[in-house]
Amino acid sequence: DVIVFMVDGREEPTITDHEIAEMLRKSGKPIVFVANKIDEPSTPIAEFWELRLGAPLPISALHGRNVDKLKSAIVDELPPPAPDEFLTAEWQDAIKIAIVGRPNVGKSSLLNAILGEERVIVSSIPGTTRDAIDTPFEWQGRKFILIDTAGIRRKSQIRAPLEYYAMVRAFGAIDRSDVVILVIDGVEGVTRQDARIGGYAHEQGKPTVIVVSKWDLICHKLKEESATPAQLRRHEKLLQSDFANFLQQELWFLYYAPILYTSAVERWNVELILKQALYCYEQSRKRIATGTLNKTLRQIIGEHPPPSDGKKQLKIYYATQPEVEPPTFVLFVNDPDLLQEGYLRFLEKRLRKIFQWDGTPFKWLIRSSHNHGSEEAH
User: Pick from 160, 228, 231, 157: which is nearest to 193 by CA?
Assistant: First the structure.
């Protein structure tokens, strides 16, 4: 998939270097050009421009200098994951659910709880499951494929090449999933890495369920502080409300995502995860007829007209929903620059409330149009 061409960075290009470079240029393959034996940043690099492969990446295999950059360069050149060719025809339309999260948040334990058996080796050591694992199964007459991954770590924490590749596979799992299960450690809370993972799922237009794991550990502590079962339930309800508000602040872009509090060990809410995943998947495929959509928009805009900059007024002529997965809307307006981000968020939230449409991101395309004057929505 990728060719790493390594030369001696302290020696001038040899005839063999030239021959290999010419062969590589004709191959059409992605090439990572590397100059080895550059032990210090001040070490002069021989002139390699004549090989017409660009500037080489200076590294020192002996001292480990820039090896992380080499890994990154290789990963950047890797092709996207291959389609699911291993699946038989009856499984091609199965709903693919990617379970993603940081290392040691309980993803594999959750997968085992969903499947009802130990299908993945579980350990308290982060990164026990190094690669993505696809597991087909059926539930309530529907076919699913669970994609489990090694935890996604910050790049600075990654040392082994296999773990680095596992991180890449995790993002690849999001790319080819239909629904994302974002697992958050209920004890540690939300980190920047959680936000990065959730942000990637959002940007890719994937319906998402937020699963707060290890909730049994929280409840055990609450039980020690509660005098009665009723008081325990009240304390847990208050804590879940506070945690949900915390998630809405830290993962504000996933405001549409349902939140579940689970324990893989105690099997709390495990089946509910599948119900919510199926619900979010169906929400991502929901479509509103053009006539209904425009009638609703006229109603919303009539109640709350768009703000004006004092010189020119935004006019929304027409809207349509050409695509699903995710639901995609095209707005035809007189001037796209007049549509403020805040007003677009207002329109989205009102549409979600009216059509009971959560669990999935929306995609908006704004088009300039001067041909829909008679269909102006306000």
Answer: 157
Q: Which domains does the chain have, with CATH numbers?
A: 3-77 (3.40.50.300), 89-284 (3.40.50.300), 290-375 (3.30.300.20)
Residue 292: φ, ψ to 5° = -65, -40
The length of the chain is 378
Sign, CA dihedral 56-57-63-64, equals: negative
How far is Cα of residue 52 from the mean position of the Cα atoms in its chain?
37
pLDDT tens by residue, 250-309: 999 999 999 999 988 888 888 899 999 999 999 999 999 999 999 999 999 999 999 877
The pLDDT tens digits of the residues spanning 2-38 come to 999 999 988 889 999 999 999 999 888 999 999 999 9
In whole angstroms, give the CA distance from residue 78 to residue 120. Answer: 26
Task: Scan for tokens 């007003």, then name that residue.
Answer: 343
Q: Are 317 and 366 in contact (CB under 8 A)?
A: no
- For residue 282 the two structure tokens come to 């169906």
CB 112 within 8 A of CB 119: yes
Grouping H, G, I as helix, E, B as strand and the rest as coil, residue 91 is helix
Cα 172-174-281 angle, rounded to 5 deg = 150
End-to-end CA distance of the chain, in Å?
A: 55
Cα 80 to Cα 12: distance, rounded to the nearest angstrom: 36
Do residues 57 and 66 lie in contact, with contact meaning Cβ atoms separated by under 8 Å? yes
pLDDT by residue (tens digit) across 73-111? 888 887 765 555 556 677 888 999 999 988 778 887 888
Number of alpha carbons in the 13 Å side-chain half-sphere of residue 359: 21
The position carrying tokens 């270097």 is 17
Percent of the chain predicted with pLDDT > 90: 47
Q: Are 77 and 2 in contact (CB under 8 A)?
A: yes
User: What's phi and psi for 203, nearest 5 deg?
Assistant: -65, -30
Phi-psi region of 154 (alpha: psi -120 to 50; beta: other; left: phi over 0): beta
Structure tokens at 29: 């393959």
